[in-house]
Design goal:
Length: about 150
């Protein structure tokens, strides 16, 4: 992950119970991840989707806030923030770091702040949900599965 450290933008990873950012109107805002009671659980699996770690934890696992202005979520300064929900299990947190840092943050830095390639592109068409950003999806799934492999072998 040389790119994450070679770039001028610093990537700050905070593990806690909230994300904070400036909203569209530049107002400081906090979003609570909730606590352990707010996490639902499904059967653990050996393969992840983009949103759910293999631990089966369903909840707000993490959030990346880019150093941009005028978006729904904007960094409070020039740094890129990755917020991870501390109520997730150790492996769930590690997989969410892979999602946020190796997915969103990596692509943001690699493509010079290109938001289109760094963010999810959810679309609902004809009764189906599409996850349109295949480059991001692949990085996220590969990263999360690698963490799972490393932590279970
Ligand atoms: Zn994401």
């Amino acid at each position: 992950m040389n790119l994450l450290s070679a770039n001028k933008t610093r990537v700050i990873i905070e593990v806690g119970n909230k994300a904070y950012f400036l909203d569209k109107n530049n107002n400081y805002t906090e979003y609570s991840f909730g606590d352990k009671d707010d996490i639902d659980y499904v059967e653990p699996t050996d393969f992840t989707t983009t949103q759910t770690p293999t631990t089966g934890e369903l909840g707000y696992g993490g959030k990346t806030v880019f150093p941009v202005k005028g978006e729904l979520y904007n960094s409070v300064n020039e740094n890129l923030y990755v917020f991870i929900n501390s109520a997730f299990s150790e492996e769930g947190q590690a997989q969410m770091i892979a999602h946020e840092a190796y997915g969103h943050a990596y692509l943001f830095l690699k493509y010079g702040g290109n938001l289109k390639i760094s963010r999810h592109n959810y679309q609902h068409k004809n009764g189906y949900n599409f996850y349109g950003n295949r480059i991001l999806n692949k990085r996220i799934i590969d990263g999360m599965n690698e963490v799972h492999y490393n932590m279970s072998h």
